[in-house]
Amino acid sequence: MDSVPAPGNGARRNEDIALDLLKFVAATAGVGRASAPATGFVAGGAPKPEEQVTHLLELYARCLRVVEGKPAQAPV
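^ that's the sequence the OP posted. Answer follows.
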């Protein structure tokens, strides 16, 4: 059973660390950022909001595995 650190002792939960890592990676890579509307046709188009959410959730899961020291899963 995982122990949960007592509030105020300075320890952070893995989920919180993974969330901070997700924010850093997403901001650095521009994941989830709204793109400026383009005129005409764009090859491939902008990702749909549902796809962006899916990518962010997958990225969070990967960040959590890294923080917990578990091996990364191969992409499907």
